[in-house]
Amino acid sequence: MKTKLFPGRYESLEEISRFVVQEAEKAGLDENAQYSVELAVDEACTNIIEHAYGGEDKGKIECICTITGEGLTVELVDHGRSFNPKKVPKPKIGAKLSEVKSRGAGLYLIMNLMDEVHFDFSKDKGNRLTMVKKKEK
Amino acid sequence: MEVTTTQYKRCDLVKPTGRIDGSTAPQLEEALKAITEAGRYKLVLDMSDVNFVSSAGWWVLIRTQKTCRRYKRGEVVLACLDPKIRSSLDLVGMGTYFTIYDDVTSAVGNF
After folding, report:
1. Which residues of chain B have a CB within 8 Å of the CB of A57?
2. What is the DSSP string of A83-120?
3. Tens-of-pLDDT digits for all 111 residues of chain B?
4. E strands, B1-111, where?
5. Could you tell me how far CA A57 lies from the centroid of its own chain?
6. A56 in reach of chain B (CB within 8 A)
7. Which of A18, A30, B69, B72 is the residue whose CA sits 20 to 30 A from A8?
8. From CA B99, how far away is CA B21, in angstroms rounded?
9. Where are the domains of chain A?
10. Cα A95 to chain center, whole Å?
11. d(CA A12, CA A42)
12. DSSP strands (E only) in chain A
């Protein structure tokens, strides 16, 4: 298990990506799966900065990577606002260009790129997002 | 990320390099706005040196596409898109908003 703490600002995204891709590679994930982890983590951290903290430099993002027999588990912990993932609207696939709205694409990507996604919101311990990416069999 | 732009007779070629994420997307948006605000709406994005695009980057391209296609005055087309990036674009259904070319010459030649 490896843990790193990052400042909650957009500039951290590149460093967070480097960290999780390195761990994904060590876990034996192929290039496509590594990109899925990189994108899902980037989208999740962007949401933490934008929605949980409501802006940059309001709090930290803790990133925990655990290599398991089946692949990689990434946990992201923040201490900002919680939310109800079920209430985030899904992006409208096939909508006209003029009607496309930007909300919800990040969460939709996370749900579709990762094999398991779990949210845990606690007043004491903060918000924890757990994502699992499995190796191709 | 760096962005270089080249103005041709029929279109503008924009070449970003590196990552397009929440941190760098505003820089790309600024470069694209400079072109559309000058009244040029036919854009080719050479994506050959882009290794990562998050949804923050796609929204910049979609906003620019909306501006360019208004009054049918132009379009944003993409060239040399990494297959991994393309499949994530298709996953959220955004792939349908862009014509994607395998090489820059064909993309520029389309205008």
Report:
1. none
2. --GGGSPPP-TT--GGG---TTHHHHHHHHHSSEEEEE
3. 999 999 999 999 999 999 999 999 999 999 999 999 999 999 999 999 999 999 999 999 999 999 999 999 999 999 999 999 999 999 988 899 999 999 999 999 999
4. 2-7, 12-20, 42-46, 50-53, 75-79, 99-101
5. 18
6. no
7. A30
8. 22
9. 2-134
10. 25
11. 10
12. 2-7, 60-67, 71-78, 116-122, 126-134
SS3 at position B24: coil
Query: Of B104, B111, B110, which is closest to residue B46 (Cα–Cα)?
Result: B104
What distance in Å separates the CA atoms of residue B103 and residue A27, rounded to the nearest whole number?
34
> Any idea which fold A2-134 has?
Heat Shock Protein 90 (3.30.565)
A45, A61 contact by CB (below 8 A): yes
What pLDDT, in 10s, does the model give residues A46-65? 999 999 999 999 999 999 99
Contact criterion met (CB < 8 Å) for B66 and A32: no
Residue type, B71: Y
| Amino acid found at A82 | S
Count the Cβ atoms, other than its own, within 10 Å of residue A123.
Answer: 7
* Chain position carrying tokens 């389309």: B110
Q: Contacts of residue B69 in chain A, CB cutoff 8 Å? A: 97
Q: What's the whole-model pTM score?
A: 0.96
Structure-block tokens of residue A20: 């999780």
- The distance of B109 to chain A (nearest Cα, Å) reads 24
CB A114 within 8 A of CB A71: no
